[in-house]
Amino acid sequence: MAATNPGGVKADQDSEYPAQSTADMTVFVQNLLVQMQNRFQAMSDSILSKIDDMGSKIDELEQSINDLKAEMGVEGVANSKPEEDEPSEDAA
């Protein structure tokens, strides 16, 4: 009978634990989902910020390239005639 009594007490405890365990698990999962959502939002914000920074850097690089092209275009016109003459001298 000693074995039956502890089993009976355990059966009463088991009937209380599933409800408490389910409630605890629900709270745990909800907290976990909130944490995941917050982390996802933080990462998304970080990624968007980095994309914006990269876009700005690309714009600056494009402007620098255009400036260099403009400089080379002005110098290229002045230097293009002597460069054309030099190969002729080398060929002669």
UniProtKB/TrEMBL annotation:
Residues 73-92 are annotated as: Disordered. It comes from the Eukaryota. GO terms for molecular function: transcription corepressor activity. Pfam families: HSBP1. Residues 83-92 have a biased composition (Acidic residues). InterPro entries: HS1-bd. Belongs to the HSBP1 family. This is Heat shock factor binding protein.
